[in-house]
C-alpha cells in the first residue's frame, strides 16, 4: 500500500508543467495574439498548429496587480500558480500558460 501511495504521488508530480515563473518576471509589457472565440469542444491547447490569431493587444502588467492596455482600458491580473496569468481587461478575461521550451545552454545543460 505504501508503494502504491508513493507511485501515485510521483505520478502527480509528472503532470505539472515545468514552467516556473516569479511575479517579478511577469511585470512589464506584453503582446497577446488573440484568436476569435470558439464554441468547439475539441479545442487542442497543446497544438500550435490550430492557432490562427486575428487580433493583437498590448498590455502593461504593473504592481501590485494592475493591467493597462494601449487603448486605455484598465483592469487587473493575477498569477495562475507559477505557470500562467489571468487578466481581466476591457470586459474580457484572458488566460495564458507560459510556454516552456527545454533547451541546452553552451555548457550542454538544460
TrEMBL record:
Residues 1-21 form the signal peptide. Residues 16-104 form the Cathepsin C exclusion domain. This is Cathepsin C exclusion domain-containing protein. Pfam families: CathepsinC_exc (PF08773). Gene3D superfamilies: Cathepsin C, exclusion domain (2.40.128.80). It comes from the Eukaryota. It comes from Streblomastix strix. Keywords: Signal.
Amino acid at each position: 500500500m505504501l508503494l502504491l501511495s508513493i507511485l501515485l504521488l510521483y505520478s502527480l508530480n509528472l503532470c505539472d508543467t515545468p514552467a516556473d515563473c516569479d511575479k517579478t518576471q511577469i511585470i512589464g509589457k506584453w503582446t497577446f495574439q488573440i484568436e476569435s472565440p470558439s464554441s468547439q469542444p475539441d479545442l487542442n491547447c497543446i497544438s500550435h498548429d490550430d492557432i490562427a490569431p486575428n487580433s493583437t493587444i498590448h498590455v502593461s502588467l504593473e504592481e501590485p496587480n494592475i493591467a493597462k492596455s494601449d487603448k486605455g482600458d484598465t483592469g487587473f491580473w493575477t498569477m495562475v500558480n507559477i505557470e500562467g496569468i489571468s487578466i481581466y481587461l476591457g470586459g474580457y478575461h484572458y488566460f495564458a500558460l507560459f510556454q516552456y521550451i527545454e533547451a541546452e545552454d553552451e555548457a550542454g545543460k538544460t
